[in-house]
Write a structure and sequence with these properties.
single chain; 268 residues; mainly alpha; 14 helices; 63% helix; elongated
């Protein structure tokens, strides 16, 4: 149970007058609501009123996952930590409907992305449009890795338990054979690391539908998201000079995910 007041934090970490003026002049009330809801979610992440890391993680595990991935790129992080962050994201976004994915398998996927596709890390929307085909290919690769690695670790645990005369029905890491389920886990892993595509959970997808954006994970949706960011000049609001808080720690895709997710929550 948290003992801090999120509303109070949000009120004291608000917009500076220039941003309020921009919002007041915005002729599209849905867009103004999108920007306000995004800021209201982000603001608590930049205060000191979380009592411990558990409270911080409970609020948003993406920041820790991304920071861990970025630190690994520069040689100062253990990728095994990413399992916990990915698990927390899956739990919050998919309400425990996704099967557990082995910690070592999770770190192997992060390692693959860090060594083979670091050029896709924290892309702007403009850059994503140029590399959208590569992003879709990476998502397919990670989906296949999820299926392969889940089976590999299932068999390994099965063999270990057989050698110790334990019942195999108690296995903790089931094989993931359904491509759609594997694709969702791959989406979580990419969102938590490269962050070049958003997390297509139900609330985010509902937010997309409110704005007439394709909610099916894929090239069309990703391009429409990038166009939404650019066509609405969201850099005017995303840039640090318009906030009392530092927001550039968030990538443009995380900014978009947060906005549509919060819209989806409100319209639920």
């Amino acid at each position: 149970m948290r003992n801090f007041d999120l509303d109070a934090i949000r009120n004291t970490k608000g917009f500076i007058p220039q941003t309020e003026a921009l919002l007041a002049a915005e002729t599209n009330p849905k867009l103004a609501e999108f920007i306000r809801l995004t800021h209201n979610y982000i603001a608590p992440l930049y205060n000191l009123e979380f009592n411990n890391e558990i409270e911080y993680l409970e609020y948003d595990s993406w920041v820790q996952a991304r920071d861990c991935f970025r630190s690994y790129i520069y040689g100062s992080a253990d990728l095994m930590l990413t399992f916990y962050y990915v698990y927390q994201i899956m739990k919050k976004s998919f309400n425990d409907t996704l099967p557990a994915f082995h910690p070592e398998a999770t770190s192997q996927c992060f390692l693959y992305l860090a060594t083979k596709h670091v050029d896709l890390f924290d892309l702007t929307c403009s850059e994503i449009k140029d590399k959208v085909d590569e992003i879709m290919m990476v998502h397919k690769d990670i989906t296949n890795m999820v299926i392969h690695l889940s089976d590999l670790y299932y068999r390994k645990e099965e063999n270990d338990k057989s050698e110790n005369n334990e019942k195999c029905s108690m296995l903790s890491w089931p094989p993931i054979k359904d491509p759609e389920t594997a694709a969702k886990i791959a989406n979580v892993i990419i969102f938590a690391s490269l962050n070049c595509m958003p997390l297509y959970d139900e609330k985010f997808k509902k937010g997309l539908r409110e704005f007439g954006i394709d909610d099916n994970p894929g090239k069309k949706s990703l391009l429409e998201l990038c166009s939404f960011y650019e066509d609405n000049n969201l850099d005017d609001f995303y840039g640090r000079k318009f906030f009392k808080i530092e927001t550039t720690k968030f990538s443009q895709m995380k900014y978009l995910y947060t906005g549509f997710y919060e819209i989806g929550c409100k319209s639920a």
